[in-house]
Structures are given as C-alpha cells and as structure tokens.
UniProtKB/TrEMBL annotation:
Source organism: Ameca splendens
Upper taxonomic lineage: Eukaryota, Metazoa, Chordata, Craniata, Vertebrata
Protein's recorded name: Cyclin-dependent kinase 2 interacting protein
Length: 104
C-alpha cells in the first residue's frame, strides 16, 4: 500500500509539472482529480498501518500467553478494529466506486 501511495504521489507531481498547479482539467477516472485520490489513499494508509501494528502486537502477545481466558480477550481486540473508523470504510467505498472496481 505504501508503494501504491508513492506511485500516486508521483502521478500527482507529474500532472502538476505538465499541467501546472491546478493539475489535469479532466478527471482521472469518474469525477475525482489526482489530488483527491492521493488524499484518500493517505487517509487509508494511515488507518490501516495503525491497525496492522496493533494486530501484530496482539499476535505477539497471543503467542506468549499462558492464561486460558486471554485468547478470547485478544480475539475481541482483534475484531474491534479501533483504528479503522467508519469514515475510512466510506472513503474506501468511494475510492472503489470512483475507479470502477465496485459497480453502482
């Protein structure tokens, strides 16, 4: 995901170089400009990166637990996903619709 984010930033910089600070006049896919793709990708990357760190920590703790009740607590922490707010899901759905990966 970080690699895709870097590619998206490169496309944005290329469009700024070719078309000026306003960027491309026609949208890249449906209606979003490249800058909107980059902003949405940045939000998604931040949320999913934090969630990945949390899940890696839970996984490490689960591997070393000796109490039989702790795995259920870790499972509830795993399923809760506190670093992925509802706004993130909405942003992801909008991105999928915009690129044509999700039909209307």
């Amino acid at each position: 995901m970080e690699h895709l984010m870097a590619i998206q930033q490169g496309v944005q910089h290329l469009e700024e170089f070719q078309f000026g600070p306003e960027g491309r006049t026609l949208p890249l896919c449906q209606s979003w400009r490249t800058k909107e793709f980059e902003e949405s990708s940045r939000v998604l990357l931040a949320a999913f990166s934090q969630e990945l760190k949390l899940k890696q920590m839970i996984l490490q703790e689960l591997a070393h637990t000796t109490v039989s009740d702790l795995p259920m607590i870790y499972l509830s922490c795993w399923l809760h996903q506190p670093f992925i707010p509802a706004q993130t899901r909405l942003t992801l759905e909008a991105l999928l619709l915009e690129t044509g990966h999700r039909p209307l």
